[in-house]
Fold each of these.
Amino acid sequence: MKGVEKRAFKQAVFAVREQEAALDIVQDAMLRLAEKYGDRPDAELPLLFHRIMQNAIRDWFRRQKVRSLWTTLLSSLSSSREDEDQDPLETLEAADGSNREEAPGEQLERAQTLEIIDEEISRLPERQRQAFLMRYWEELDVAETARRMRCSEGSVKTHCSRAAHSLAAALKARGITL
Amino acid sequence: MNEHQFGNKVRQALNRGLLGISDKVERRLQQARETALSRQRAERAPALVWADNVLGRFGGAWTTVTVYAVLSLALLAGGATGIYTWQQNQRIAELEEIDSQLLTDDLPIDAYLDRGFQNWLKKRSAEQ
């Protein structure tokens, strides 16, 4: 669990694009894995954790949909907004590591590159992103990726190929060369 | 650069990104992991594990609920069979006892069918 929690967190961030929500999702997934499947053999746990994570992300989107519907309804009823005077920069936290001693230009460039890669991965269609990250980040083979995604090996290859092409094109368009 | 090389480059970048995860997030993740481990489901009873294995071998997707239901039914059926067998044995033993008493008695069996004799026995026992 320890080895995959950061990666799981990042994958949740790619999906929901909110750090707090991603943390909640990973936390819920860990709890569900431990409570419901804690007695399963170790070999089954990565697959189970992956499925729980995907379900938790889907649940989050479902809840967001309901919440946004209610928010729209309520905001149309009330004309005043309490948070109008708040400046979002006031609550923005400094990125971790931003105070390390390093050439500022180099550090900024690296951080920007990683941020752009994260953004572009987030923009990939869900299935393409899942397949690409499992194949190339988690280094799973095609068969295992197909098993986790419950699809054929051919579909995994197609998703990966499309994701790689889209990502490469998007990064190139933003001036990033890997 | 082919797809595989590109994938490797992205992996390196993503792994570098992991190093930049804030301490606050790391602490929350660690806390979540510890909470999850503390609530880890206890080992199931050996009988259940065995039943699950056996049933899983035949059916595949057996849920815990099914395992519990099957075990309960098996226990119920076993109990009912036990009670029935015990009752049968008791009845056979009683019949055997009556038979042996009848066979060893001096009185002829026909005497028990004679209503007058039975009335006499009752009257006699009432007097005593």
Amino acid sequence: MKFSKTFLFTVLATALFAESGFTADGKKTRDEQVIEDREDLKNDDAWIYNDLETAKTAARDAGKPMMIVFRCIP
Amino acid sequence: MDEFVCLRMIQMNGVDLVQFQFDYDMSFAVIFMNPDGTIYGRYGTRNSKPEGAENNISIEGMRSALEATLALHKGYPANAELFAAKKGGSPSYPTAEQYPKMKDYTPKINYGNQVAKSCIHCHQIHDAERQMLRDAGKLIPDEILHLYPMPQSVGIELDPKKRASVSKVEPNSPAAAAGVKPGDEILFAGGQPLVSVADFQWVLNATPASGATIPLKARRAGKAEALVLSLVDGWRKKADFTWRVSTWDLRRIALGGMILLPDESGNATPTGIYVKNAGKYGNHAVARKAGARPDDKIVEIAGISGATTEAEVISKILDATKKGEPVTVKVKRGGKLIEYSYKTQ
């Protein structure tokens, strides 16, 4: 089974950047970054944003496990 | 990607703490779960400052965790008994905002204009748990202070690139005594399948500070090895927790807001630590108001006058001192011996 490097890197990239204090745009407030992050994920078919019940339904219907990532914008 | 349903959670407001238990000091944590709530495993760990994060997580490690999870999922529900202990016990409160310290938070984030202020950070749960004990006049037990011990606590270094594979064994450690060897792939600990380092930490976290034995099943050169890790009273104290974000609040509680670091000046006192900083605001200024100043060289603190670390000092204070009880500090400052006392919180 293969997981694309892009997918894996996406999951880990914000963790590593955040660990070093990096933010995507140093000029934006944290509130703005969180809202921008939410908008980005709304347009991303790979991720469900902050909605456990929707994720559970999707996983149940598809017979798949869930990968639940707890990650905020630091 | 297609083999998982991926969910991103950005806050702890409203999150079911019965179901979602992990090291809340992580800024990145993953739980692999069946939609019926059965937890297959966890991923995400660190034991150092930001520049060390890549030593604890990796793309290769994430890949191996995903692959291991899919294998467990494939065997579910026939293998369901393997996962019983991956769910934690009952938390003090079912959701974070129900803790007394967080009663001003709500179950949902305010996306209007109060996003950051309304968001409960993961580490606040650790903070709230400790404050609840302090407010009840209780000591903070090692199981709550020395959280999610790293494998190094028992003498093992695990390769962050490969599930729970041993890269190093410390001589004269519990791991060495158990017969663990570099190269061993620890597949099970405490009867639970491991998909990552975080899973091994989960098992250690469930182990009492008074000690216990942990059965291990490892693969060594293609063969199965059954080992037993024996931990004795005090084993949890070996973990240095001062890198954790929740240590900021522990410094308020136990040190009156001081930060203590190793004194590398060349003329350190026998304790070997000094006051790097003493907080200036609110409840973090308690030690400063009592007389603490940056660069104070610690001669004695809470009865400790020999070589020590900030973690040991905090641990000793929280082992012995209830809320409101004093801590006495003796320091050298400008060649003079000065003494002050502050109350713990």
